[in-house]
Amino acid sequence: MIAPRPVPTAVEWLRVNLAIGTLSFGAASRIVLYEDAVVRDRGWMDPDEFGEVITVAQLLPGPNLVNLSAYLGYRLVGPGAAVLGVLCLCIPGAVLAVALSGVLAVERPWVQAPMRGMAVAGIVLLLLFLWRRLAGLASTADPEVPARTRVRVVRGVLLVSVAAAILWGASIYAVLGVALPVALVLEFAL
């Protein structure tokens, strides 16, 4: 017999958002933290459901991270707690950024060194996020039929190319402006 999936309370959901909003920065790192909190640690969703939520969040207009928090909250605890969850996600970082911008001189080496360390941590979390998405390279509309090897290889090359371009400092808009049309053509041509 399969145990019932735990259902979060509004307070639990707000705590997750507050912790993620307070202790992290950058969209990719937060997506990994949400996945850990919602799927791995608490079992509120399975990995496939979380992947679906990420897809919907990316399709909605607006910042993906806010969309992710809002849609997760909506599915898990309802619309009221979803709105409060977004506030718990956004307010700590905004307050911290405003407070630190008036105090820290970013041109000083003692400020730049921790920032570089955080940038490295952000890159590691981005790579972790991409690693966890690799299983999707073999997916098709029919879960029983895996994608052909040629399709998986092309998807993998495109994913690695996008990640490399972003890590080397290319504009995200330029990368997506090239990658999205290429992905669509390849997806339907193969």
Walk me through this protein's architecture.
This protein has 190 residues and is an all-alpha fold. The chain has a domain at 1-105. The protein is 75% helix and 0% strand. The protein contains eight helices and no strands. The chain is globular, with a radius of gyration of 19 Å. The termini are far apart.
What key phrases describe this protein's structure?
single chain, 190 residues, mainly alpha, globular
Topology (SSEs and partners):
Layout: H1 10-23, H2 27-41, H3 47-59, H4 64-77, H5 79-103, H6 109-133, H7 149-167, H8 172-189
Helix pairs in contact: 1-2, 1-5, 2-4, 2-6, 3-4, 4-5, 7-8
Strand content: under 5%
Give the % helix.
Answer: over 70%
**Structure annotation, total helices:** 8
The parts where pLDDT drops under 50 for at least 5 residues are none
Structural class: mainly alpha
H/E element string?
Answer: HHHHHHHH
Compute the separation of the termini in Å: 42 Å
Largest sheet: none
Shape: globular
Q: How many beta-strand segments?
A: 0
The Cα radius of gyration reads 19 Å
Mean pLDDT comes to 81
